[in-house]
Request: fold
Amino acid sequence: MSTFLSAAGEVDALEILHAARCTDGLPVVIPTPERVSRMVLASGLDGDVVLGELGPQWGSATVENVAVAAVMAGCLPDYIPVVVAAIRAICQPEFDLAEMQGTTHCIAPLMIVNGPARSACGDIASGFGAMGPGHRANASIGRALRLAMINIGGARPGESDMSLHGHPGKFTFCIAEDEEHSPFPPLHTSLGYAMEQSVVTLLGTEAPHSVLFTGDADDPDSADRLLNTVAAVIANPGSNNSHLGGIAAICVVFNPDHADVLGRAGYTREKIQHILSERAVTPRTQLAALNPLMLVGEEELIPAVRDPSKILLLTAGGAGLYTMVMPSWCAGPHGNVAVHEEIELDQYCEVPTRAI
Amino acid sequence: MRDGIAIARSGLPAVAFVTSAYWPQGNFVAKAEGMPDVPRVQLPHPVAGIGRMAMADLADNICALVLERLSDG
Reply:
């Protein structure tokens, strides 16, 4: 069971939580027993069900503890199935959560939601500004994961979270795929799920790196040029991915216009993955000139992503000129891979959403 | 610190090197992993990139301390 704190009122309670380093630095919704109980009820699970343990502190992520984080983050009860699935996902050993939380690198779990949960669990944005402010579900679901990583996992900057500069996505980092405007099957179907399932996919990534590209319908090579441009950003010669052997996964988020350029040219997800893996390479001589102590292997052309299947491709964002590349850490015992978990909507119990 | 803990858990003598900037994190990890007393030696920060001569001097300076930690207990 949770430890209860007492305060004269919500203003005092907030100050207590700030002082105890239980917040992300922003105000939180006070997790009163009533609010937490409602969130637990909405999950359809018992509060003492253990979803996993969160490193580096190895705190027990019970449904109740996760509900506390969701309340603090400002989640509506509708959102809890996504939060529960995300917690289960990051508890998978392959995610290397303890190491990820402690690294000096700037990495945060990017949450990608696919399937009916995009609308069933709030309205998780996939269009303009999906990674930015203004979308309640995106903001609070991603924040709930972070608050769980702080309060259950014990990640606090300068003590157990040693990221040198932090990462804006450590406040929240959650998007949905724009499946309706994608020429490709949804991301989760490429991971073995059925179209009608809801899935959250997580990958520890850096912040988005922009790719500028203008398509040209008169140019038969337009799609190919787009992929060259994306590959050039992936193969950033200053990145971990280029220097550490290309073992990690990365994420590429095409805006609907760029996805359309590729779709009209007949490119499949698999073909794009292979092309990007082949072209996102850096000459050994260039890396040697930049960072000679970090060179690995013997290859003349060093790939930023060695395994094409580790390139997560999806469509999201507003229509326009920019696609986003999210490079990664490329370290940890499992090499920074993506994990995924089904969002169990049939467990959800509808409760009134009126604030209390 | 995690490497030192993993090696110690495997039954091999181990001493973790932790620079001063990361000493609090090392203590946190050692406690969280259930081995608060795992042997460790504090190094000045930084160690990475200090050059061969400075690295050799550092090794000379901490050698006795490392042997002492290995002999503890």
Observations:
- The beta strands of chain B are 16-19, 40-43.
- Residues 2-71 of chain B form one domain.
